[in-house]
Specification:
This protein is α+β, with helices and mostly antiparallel strands. The protein has one domain (2-95). Helices cover 34% and strands 29% of the residues. It is built from one helix and four strands; from the N terminus they run αββββ. A hairpin with a 4-residue loop joins β1 and β2. It starts with a helix and ends in a 20-residue tail after the last strand.
Amino acid sequence: MKKSIGVIGLLIIGIGAFLIYQYPIQKHQATTNIDKYMTEQKIKPQQVAKMQFKKSFYWGGYDVKVRLKNDPHYYEYVYSNGASNGKYHVNYFEYDSYANEVDSTSKAHYATLTK
């Protein structure tokens, strides 16, 4: 009986630690890294009208949609785990007002940063 209670307790602690890592810790990491990325793109915090976070289990991180004041485009930053090296990175996508992806190399308002 005591052994099964111990196993259940460890299982609950393990699931709790996993959930804490998946939600508040990764969201904080995503926010920090996306803010740095936007700063490198010369986007000021005062320009941000709305920032929407969505947990992405497919990519292993967060999708963050950003709307800027007085701008018909919206920007998506995908904070995800790199499949090849296991490190987290930020991908940048830009969409016009019709939800068509803007070619990030030629017509984008903000440059895609490569590191």
